[in-house]
């Protein structure tokens, strides 16, 4: 009897603790999905967006500066919707975090033809000397003569953001359910939120700069935009555009299409931890005081101190992530979506996201599903997705982004190369496994 009790105790221990590898508590046996090829021959596709105009079209932004139209029957048109390459900074083909990074269609696109892009332009004359480039948030309009073409002369630069280094540019922009445009900005680059262009407290903790924040703008009023009156720093010390701050590199953000329409952000970590946050107004998400749930010391980024402040410089509490994992799992989180489609009913209400790769040498990106915990305040449980259509159940490439169509079905965008070069970029749709 004792032997039987021992055996069952051992089995229970293995079930509960044997596969525990991250502070998200566990990565357990993998649920399955399939990936169906939708488009290929791209370079580095980083955004897939539906204009919600009833045409069934999808628009794919390629990091090199082009936006392509995918028709409702899956055809990629021969000519790009718009080509911004001559307006962008030159990209490093081996690896680069600059480029065309964000695309969003105005909620009234069918009436006004307006869409917005976020891209890396050469350093403007007014920028500090020695900085790297200037990010542009720009408005364009669709061509009156051809709905599959933008008017390249319609560009209106709404917001230039000077960037001290070439990395941590942020990325995907998105309209919220309130009709405002949300713009994620990284901390200015380099490492540890220190160095040229970074104040002693770090840009993430300095609300006098836009860097390290998610902005919230009214692009239907003002010149070139207006500030929503309930933005957290209106009438207070800090930039009026800021919605939330304390972020390192929120590369992918997305609003939940259902539920309470929460804003999810995948914030790429430094040396040890990756995180996903639910972003709410006025909150401080901790960088560079914390990396994920862990204390962070910019002078020793590989050695988390045992203690650190639990509040920002203004005494505001630091908000922790909902998902966290270490660099044995992956080295750059790719934020995704709460699944609200119909093809994969078993994933309804799950957060589907990814990781870029575990190495720069060869693409071995991963896809995950995350589910809320039973106890309030606990981290969400994540599970790696097994790719039924992939070799060894893996994606087999660098995961660059996720996208969502008008029916809330999901897509993953990949490349076989770590930099913006070649034509190995592909778009896959999530299908049953």
What does this structure look like?
This protein is mainly beta. The protein has a single domain, classed as 6 Propeller (Neuraminidase). 5% of the residues lie in helices and 35% in strands. The protein has helices at residues 2-17, 109-112, and strands at 32-42, 45-49, 58-62, 66-70, 82-83, 100-105, 114-122, 133-142, 150-163, 174-175, 181-184, 213-217, 242-245, 250-255, 263-267, 273-279, 290-291, 294-295, 323-326, 333-338, 351-355, 366-371, 381-384, 386-387, 398-404, 410-415, 425-432. The strands form seven sheets. A five-stranded mixed β-sheet has the order 24-1-27-26-25, with no helix packed on it. Strands 2-3-4-5 form a four-stranded antiparallel β-sheet, with no helix packed on it. A four-stranded antiparallel β-sheet has the order 6-7-8-9, with no helix packed on it. The radius of gyration is 21 Å and the shape is globular. The chain starts with a helix and ends with a strand.
């Amino acid at each position: 009897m004792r032997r039987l009790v021992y055996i069952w105790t051992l089995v229970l221990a293995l079930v509960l603790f044997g596969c525990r590898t991250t502070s998200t508590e566990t990565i357990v046996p993998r649920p399955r999905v399939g990936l169906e090829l939708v488009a290929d021959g791209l370079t580095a596709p980083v955004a897939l967006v539906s204009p919600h105009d009833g045409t069934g079209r999808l628009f794919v932004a390629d990091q090199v500066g082009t936006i392509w139209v995918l028709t409702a029957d899956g055809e990629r048109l021969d000519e790009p919707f718009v080509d911004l390459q001559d307006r962008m900074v030159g990209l490093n083909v081996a690896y680069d975090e600059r480029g065309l990074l964000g695309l969003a269609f105005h909620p009234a696109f069918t009436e006004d033809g307006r869409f917005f892009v976020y891209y890396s332009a050469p350093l403007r004359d007014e920028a500090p000397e020695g900085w790297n480039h200037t990010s542009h948030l720009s408005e364009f309009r669709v061509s009156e003569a051809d709905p599959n073409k933008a008017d390249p002369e319609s560009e209106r630069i709404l917001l230039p953001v000077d960037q001290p280094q070439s990395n941590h540019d942020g990325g995907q922009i998105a309209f919220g359910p309130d009709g405002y445009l949300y713009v994620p900005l990284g901390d200015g680059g380099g490492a540890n939120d220190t160095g040229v262009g970074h104040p002693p407290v770090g840009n993430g903790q300095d609300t006098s700069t836009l860097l390290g924040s998610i902005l919230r703008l009214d692009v239907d009023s003002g010149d070139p935009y207006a500030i929503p009156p309930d933005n957290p720093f209106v009438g207070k010390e800090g930039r009026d555009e800021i919605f939330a701050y304390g972020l390192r590199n929120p590369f992918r953000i997305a609003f939940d299409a259902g539920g309470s329409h929460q804003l999810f952000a995948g914030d790429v970590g430094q040396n040890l931890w990756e995180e996903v946050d639910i972003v709410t107004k006025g909150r401080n998400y901790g960088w560079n005081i914390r990396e994920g749930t862990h204390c962070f010391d910019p002078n020793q980024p590989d050695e988390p101190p045992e203690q650190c402040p639990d509040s920002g410089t203004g005494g505001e509490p630091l908000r922790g992530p909902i998902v966290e994992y270490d660099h044995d799992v992956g080295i750059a989180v790719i934020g995704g979506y709460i699944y609200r489609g119909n093809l994969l009913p078993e994933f309804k209400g799950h957060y589907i996201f990814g990781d870029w790769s575990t190495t720069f040498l060869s693409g071995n990106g991963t896809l995950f599903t995350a589910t809320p915990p039973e106890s309030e305040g606990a981290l969400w449980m994540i599970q790696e997705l097994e790719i039924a259509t992939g070799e060894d159940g893996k994606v087999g490439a660098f995961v660059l982004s996720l996208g969502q169509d008008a029916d809330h079905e999901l897509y993953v965008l990949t490349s076989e190369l770590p930099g913006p070069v070649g034509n190995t970029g592909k778009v896959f749709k999530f299908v049953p496994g």
